[in-house]
Design brief:
Blueprint (H helix, E strand, L loop, with lengths): L2 H8 L5 H14 L5 H10 L8 H12 L5 H5 L1 E12 L6 E4 L6 E8 L2 E8 L5 H23 L4 E3 L4 H4 L1 H9 L18 H13 L8 H11 L5 H9 L1 H10 L6 H18 L2
Parallel strand pairs: 1-5
Antiparallel strand pairs: 1-2, 1-3, 3-4
Helix pairs in contact: 4-12, 6-8, 9-10, 9-13
C-alpha cells in the first residue's frame, strides 16, 4: 500500500493519531490490503471517513462509459487549452509547454480523423474569451464536420468555469454545440489531448532557431498544428476504452496514463530537444 494512499485516508479523519496506529496494524495483518479495504476497516471500528468524492466521480464516470463502442468514441471532439513559453537564449533556447503563467495560451481540439481549429488566446481565458474562441474558430468547423459526417458530435470540455459557466452553457445551447454536461475533476488521463500538446511542442521545438519572439512562437504554433499526424490522433481515440478500463481497475485512482502524462512524455520531449 503506497504511503500516499494511506495519507489520503488520514487527511479525511479528525483523530489521525489513533487512526494511523489502526491503519498500520491493519497493513501488518494484511500487507495486500486495498485502499477501499482500509477505509472500510476504519469505518468498522468507528471512524468517520469522508467520501473521496473525486475518486468516486472518476470511477462512476468510467463505469458509465466502460461499454462504449468505437463509434461512440469516434463522435467525441476532444478539447483543452495549453500554454507555451520560450525558455533560455540561443543556442540553448527551448520551446516548452508550461502549466504556469506567461508565454502564449492556445486552445485547440481534435477528433478521431484529425485536427480541428487552434486559437491563440490573447486575454485572460474566461467565459467571454472562450465564447469568442468558439464563435470565431470552432463553430463553423464543428457544424461543417457534423454536416459532412452526419454524426452527433460531442465537444469534450473539462470542468473549468470558463467552460461550464451559465453564459458559456447558454451560448453553446443556442448554437447547438453538445457536450458531456459534466467532467470529473483532476482527470487529465481521461482526455488524450495532453499527448497532442506534447507532440505540438516537439514539432515547434525543431524550429527553435527561427523563434526569437512571442510573435515568432505564435506563427510556429499555427503553422505546425495542421502538420500534426492524423494517424496519431486516431490511435489515441482507438485506445480510449483502455483508459477508462484502467480507471475502473484503479477504482477511480491514478492510472499509468496519469504517470505517462506527468512524467514520461515531458521527459521524452526534453530528450528530443537535444537530438
Amino acid at each position: 500500500m503506497p504511503t500516499s494512499s494511506v495519507q489520503s485516508i488520514l487527511d479525511r479523519i479528525n483523530k489521525k493519531g489513533r487512526a494511523e496506529r489502526h491503519l498500520k496494524a491493519a497493513i501488518r495483518s494484511d500487507p495486500l490490503s486495498s485502499y477501499e479495504d482500509l477505509q472500510m476497516e476504519l469505518v468498522r471500528v468507528g471512524f468517520n471517513v469522508c467520501r473521496d468524492t473525486k475518486r468516486e466521480d472518476r470511477l462512476l464516470w468510467s463505469k458509465e462509459r466502460a461499454n462504449w463502442t468505437d463509434n461512440q468514441w469516434n463522435n467525441v471532439v476532444w478539447s483543452d487549452e495549453s500554454r507555451f513559453i520560450i525558455h533560455g537564449n540561443f543556442p540553448g533556447r527551448r520551446v516548452l509547454r508550461n502549466g504556469g503563467g506567461g508565454g502564449i495560451m492556445v486552445w485547440g481540439c481534435f477528433w478521431v480523423s484529425g485536427f480541428g481549429t487552434i486559437a491563440i488566446v490573447e486575454e485572460k481565458f474566461n467565459q467571454d474569451v472562450y465564447i469568442d474562441t468558439l464563435a470565431q474558430t470552432f463553430h463553423s468547423w464543428y457544424q461543417n464536420l457534423i454536416a459532412k459526417t452526419d454524426k452527433p458530435l460531442l465537444l469534450q470540455e473539462d470542468g473549468a468555469i470558463c467552460y461550464t459557466g451559465l453564459y458559456a452553457r447558454l451560448w453553446k445551447e443556442a448554437h447547438q454545440i453538445k457536450g458531456f454536461g459534466y467532467w470529473p475533476a483532476q482527470s487529465p488521463d481521461l482526455n488524450p489531448i495532453d499527448h497532442i500538446w506534447y507532440s505540438l511542442e516537439a514539432l515547434v521545438q525543431k524550429r527553435k532557431a527561427s523563434i526569437h519572439s512571442m510573435e515568432d512562437l505564435k506563427v510556429a504554433l499555427k503553422e505546425e498544428w495542421p502538420r500534426m499526424d492524423a494517424e496519431f490522433a486516431k490511435r489515441l481515440v482507438v485506445n480510449m476504452g483502455r483508459r477508462y478500463q484502467a480507471v475502473i481497475g484503479a477504482k477511480g485512482g491514478p492510472t499509468r496514463h496519469s504517470f505517462f502524462i506527468l512524467f514520461f512524455i515531458p521527459a521524452l520531449i526534453n530528450v528530443r530537444t537535444f537530438l
